[in-house]
Amino acid sequence: MPFRLGFQIAYRFDQPTPMVAMLDVHDSHALRLLSGPAVWTSPQVPLHRYRDRFGNTCTRLLAPAGLLVLRGDVLVREVGTGGLVHEGPRGPLPQEDRQFLQPSRHCEVRPLARYAQLRFADLPSDRTRVQAICAHVARAIEYDPDSTDFNRTALRALQEGRGLSRDFAHAAIALCRGVGIAARYCTGYPPATAGGLHPEPRFAAWIEAWVDGRWQAFDPRGGAACPERVPVARGRDAADVATSCTFGLCEPEGMEVWSLGVAGTEASGATVDVATLALAS
């Protein structure tokens, strides 16, 4: 069953400003694309793509003075993988992925290591540990869309008991690393909905953990079960996968993200008013 993914983001610049954005569907899901990917700008400007150290597709552009709108739209094939990130033989954690065992900017491991060891180290398997960690994070943190703080770390999220999906992900990643399980941050589209256009003000966040010899997806906000997601970028934490990075001052005008089930594909021509929601990616 196909479903349609899309976004629309608006910024206002006082002067021409270099900018890097991560907006393309991740290459690991390229075979699922039925159309596109299509990312365009208004006004139209040249787009230059490259890969970062994590394999994410980055788009470099020069934003003109005034209003710049970025929009994307793609039709993808549904594949029920049960959270499995890639097929292939099971094996040990690749050398290049050992960085996902280390502390990172938003996922401090040392202050949470004892906390994690006492609660999860004695569980019988890595899968059980990750599931228990996600369930624990879902109970410990309350989702609060008004609690945006891009400097909040995993430790602070657990102490404050509130946050966005990125805070749930950071807390779960830090606890996984605290018991020796490699975990990485993912951002992308939320699960598809049916019956119409229901835009959200941000991309979703979840985690992937190295379990049973391969990367598998988990949703700490939902308590472990991870509905099928389509990633845009992966990294150590949210600092590695910012939706956009501008090399100069700008004023965010709005952002919306949508994911439509089969009933919603008829709405592919619908437009989204980007001024209705504040940017909070």
Automatic annotation (TrEMBL):
A Pfam family per the record: Transglut_core
Domain of life: Bacteria
Protein name: Transglutaminase domain-containing protein
Ranges for domain Transglutaminase-like: 157-222
InterPro entries named among the record's database cross-references: Papain-like_cys_pep_sf, Transglutaminase-like
